[in-house]
Design brief:
The structure holds two protein chains of two kinds.
Chain A: E1 2-6, E2 11-15, H1 21-28, E3 45-50, H2 60-69, E4 76-78, E5 89-94
Chain B: H1 2-6, E1 12-14, E2 17-19, E3 24-25, E4 29-30, E5 35-37, E6 40-44, E7 47-51, H2 59-69, E8 75-79, H3 85-88, H4 91-97, E9 102-105, H5 110-116, E10 123-125, E11 131-133, E12 138-143, E13 153-157, E14 162-166, H6 187-198, H7 202-212, E15 219-222, H8 232-253, E16 256-262, H9 268-281, E17 286-292, H10 298-307, E18 310-314, H11 324-331, E19 342-349, H12 355-365, E20 375-378, H13 383-400, E21 405-408
Helix pairs in contact in B: 7-8, 9-13
Classes of the chains: A alpha+beta, B alpha/beta.
Chain lengths: ~100, ~400
């Protein structure tokens, strides 16, 4: 199981490989905002402050959207495009602007 | 003559249109005073910027005004502060008439543009800090998202200290006298607009106001209603107050508000509510209150929900459903920001007992944090069951006070 700490809501959740961040947000009731859910609108952009290697690689939609955003931070991901890939470790996410 | 009437500063003209007859806007807003779709023309020594367009059916009025003031070849930029159709309705035609003009939109508008306008259009993205030059005039952009569309941005004309605020500071208020110091009393329309459009996005209002602070503002040019030039700070202060009232209250008392809303047909759900409230109130830092949904009207519901850090709803099950006032309560969240509030549901039932689960599901979609499963009790609660209600209240209150929520999914 991977431990995810959703910093802004003080939620710790253990999840199994393959779970999407969208599902995790719904099930925990985390205050992560989602808009289009298909990687277009940038509503769900968040900082993955640790454990980036435990998430899936960015797809072309995410790359394109983050390029448009042009934010210098290197830890940004679109939560609607992320899922857990791994069996053990810690991920920390912050989604308040 | 038109030029004179619509001049709002040395180099800026109003080229918007009036919609005096509109009575319902965007399905949900009542517009007793009609409205306007404001658009502005900024003239510099090396070209012109058009700030937003208008609703499609008013395009002809818009182009008539524009043509009195410039040739299409002079237009260097078209700026859309957000892409809502009441401001982007004349965009395509304007781009056809002014093919050399560059379209400026925010990063979040990029994909929306494709959704609204099915053709490929060339555009430039403006993030906070981007500037465009019209020779002797400079326009700087500010990213002010979610006000009230995700892609909203604002801009500032440095030389004339004009803030183009998008829908922020707007009013649905038709009055051709145009300026806040000339039109009738639009205070009601200004507040109504805030309540229905901006209130769910308070934290973003506060972020935008922080960005605006960096600029000296002589005039606010919003996209609906009067142009605010007599005392712009007055309107900024109003927005700041309305967006931070609740926070001040909490800080003042240093407490978190937990509200138990319930409805009961045979006192059973009420007895549960009482114990849930007592349990919650036993936790330091929580002020717990109970409200019978039978006696709350919508505006009370909205205010109470807004003030509450935690919302617990109790409903009996009648004909396989929660009672209507409980759904009415949750429908009020359309006016508010729910993300991050803690939620929980309970209820007594006689037969099927779906109500707490149904309300729980609805609250999940409204982005409440729901740390514990719904609590259901068959008919009259026993002393032991009432104790479980007390502990239910304790648990929700502790999470509200910051106790770590731990779960496995």
């Amino acid at each position: 199981m991977v431990n995810i700490f959703l910093k802004d809501d003080n939620i710790k959740v253990k999840v199994s490989n393959g779970k999407t961040l969208r599902e995790i947000a719904i099930k925990t009731g985390a205050s992560m905002e989602f808009g289009c859910r298909v990687g277009d609108c940038l509503t769900c952009v968040a900082h993955v402050t640790s454990g980036m290697d435990l998430l899936n690689d960015k797809n072309y939609k995410e790359d394109r959207a983050l390029e448009i955003l042009n934010d210098p931070s290197t830890d940004l991901r679109l939560m609607c495009q992320c899922s857990v890939e791994g069996d053990e470790g810690e991920i920390e996410i912050s989604y308040k602007l | 003559m038109l030029d004179k009437i619509t001049k709002i500063s040395h180099s800026v003209n109003f080229i918007g249109v009036f919609d005096p007859q509109i009575r319902t806007f965007d399905i949900i807003m009542k517009t007793a005073n009609g409205s306007s779709y404001n658009s502005y023309l900024v003239r510099g020594s090396e070209g012109i910027a058009i700030m937003d367009t208008v609703k499609k059916e008013f395009s002809q009025d818009f182009f008539n005004r524009l043509e009195l003031l410039c040739d299409y070849e002079e237009i260097k930029y078209i700026v859309l502060h957000h892409l809502e159709p009441d401001h982007s309705g004349a965009l395509i035609e304007l781009m056809q008439r002014a093919p050399e003009a560059k379209l400026i939109i925010s990063a979040r508008a990029v994909m929306m543009l494709k959704g609204l306008i099915k053709d490929d259009i060339y555009f430039e993205v403006a993030n906070t800090g981007k500037k465009i030059s019209l020779g002797d005039k400079t326009i700087e952009f500010l990213s002010t998202p979610f006000l009230h569309w995700p892609d909203t941005m604002s801009s500032y004309l440095h030389e004339e200290k004009i803030l183009f605020s998008g829908d922020v500071f707007g009013s649905h208020y038709y009055d051709e006298r145009l300026f806040d110091d000339k039109v009738g009393d639009f205070a009601y329309a200004f507040k109504y607009y805030y309540d229905h459009i901006m209130r769910p996005f308070k934290q973003y209002v506060l972020q935008a106001l922080k960005l605006y602070e960096k600029f000296e503002i002589d005039t606010i040019a919003p996209l609906h209603g009067p142009i605010l030039r007599s005392n712009p700070q007055h309107y900024i202060d109003k927005y700041a107050k309305w967006s931070s009232d609740i926070k001040f209250r909490k800080h003042e008392f240093g407490k978190k508000m937990l509200s138990v809303f319930y409805m009961s047909s045979y006192d059973n759900t009420q007895k549960m509510a009482q114990k849930v409230m007592e349990g919650a109130d036993s936790i330091d830092g929580i002020v717990a209150s109970m409200y019978d949904l039978a006696s709350l009207d919508e505006s009370n519901m909205i205010d109470l929900l807004e003030e509450s850090d935690a919302v617990i709803i109790g409903s009996p099950t009648i004909n396989g459903d929660a009672v209507k006032p409980a759904w009415d309560l949750l429908s009020c969240m359309a006016y508010l920001e729910s993300a991050g509030k803690v939620g929980a549901t309970f209820g007594s039932y006689g037969w099927t007992g779906e109500a707490p689960e149904m309300l729980h599901d609805r609250m999940r979609w409204l982005k409440f944090r729901l740390p514990i499963s719904p609590l259901k009790i068959k008919l009259i609660p026993t002393d032991e069951e009432l104790q479980s209600c007390f502990l239910f209240g304790v648990e929700v209150a502790e999470i509200t006070m910051g106790k770590m929520m731990e779960m496995e999914i």
